Predict the 3D structure of the following.
Amino acid sequence: MSATWEPEPHGFATAQVHAGASPDGDHGARIPPIHLTAGFVFEDFDTARDRFAGEADGYTYTRMGNPTVEAVERRIQVLEGGLGALLVASGQAAVTTALLALAGSGDHLVVSSAIYEGTRGLVRDDLGRLGIAVDFIDDPLDLAAWRAAIRPETRALFTESIANPGTDLVDTGAIAALGREHGVPLVVDSTFATPYLFRPAEHGAAVVVHSASKFLAGHGAALGGVVVDGGFDYPAERFPHLHAPHPSLGGDSFAGRYGRQALGAYARGVVAPRFGPVLSPLSAFVIQLGIETLSLRMARQTASALALATWLAEQPAVERVDHAALPGSRHLELARRDFPRGVGAVFSFTVRGGEPAARAVLGAVRLASHMTHVGDVRTLLLHPATTSHAQRTPEERRAGGVEDGTLRISVGIEELEDLRADLGRALDAATAATSPDRERESAAAAVA
Ligand SMILES: Cc1ncc(COP(=O)(O)O)c(C=O)c1O
């Protein structure tokens, strides 16, 4: 076995266990060790000076870089087909780092409204308070709406490759191309897809972000986030901070020194160390262990999710199932074109009987865990209208496919039959809990 791993000739499952890892130089440990240290001792005076000046390889302080973290960054970069990757403390930190590396006060973002609620709040309220304006695109499939929203101050377009809770898709290639026409990079949150299902950089995304807490880590045991640099020609008129001499580069600019990788270098060299959302090497190690089984989990969970969605659509207690690969979905064509391995393990279904029916389902399941998380090896259920989407108005919720009876499911690796039995029992409970209401409703409809 060679000490250095070459990515080119290998497939996904090989890369997920080998990329970025080489046996530990001191002891030959096969798994990269956890370097749980704040800082690193300098051999001598000159080494300290040269490392601070960026003129010598090696580590200084874990906020600037750490060998355990870097091994995992390299692995994610290879899996995503990116030019670089930066691990941070959470998915929220990854989105924040990417957007703060692109935009500042007076700038503007164009953002899909079909995104994680935490990101929607971040760009609207928190970046808004810093003077960064945002326009939301209500129908992310409407390319003309994206085009119309771009202004001279626009610094990024932002989408999710698979959006929560109903697996809404976007035409990543078309939105990225539109951005390129205007010199505006596309940032894609690809948490729900993972690089196993979709690699946004191959479709022209300049930046890919993930909550590594979800499918990448896979076991619900660690939080983390990653910013992957897909490369972009950042025009000086929109991104003067990347073209101005920077003190950390001794008079060079990021664009001058790093070219198409200017943004990744700026995020790593300036935004992350200054704002400080550092990932613990311990969490990096946990995320790495998760990544080693990513393709196996994603293939199984994605297939189980489609089978469950198909089965749920046939159940009388279920009013609607939102899953992009089901016949009748407005996303089916994009699903077939861009997601040959499937659209992931998270989807939503709406039970008849509104909130009382959803409450009954959550009270009756024994296998599925009632919690706000996705991408776990265990199946998880959530009622978005009263939790993740509670801050949206009822109209906004409805537009996003969230009704009072809607439940989000993140399908785990359990046996499909066991999951069907669990959900079947829960749907029976929902029917029993709401049948007097349902009888009243149908009597009222008959009178009307
Ligand atoms: C699509 C998406 N992006 C980002 C985040 C934020 O990730 P984290 O919880 O790791 O901060 C989440 C969390 O649910 C998410 O679903």
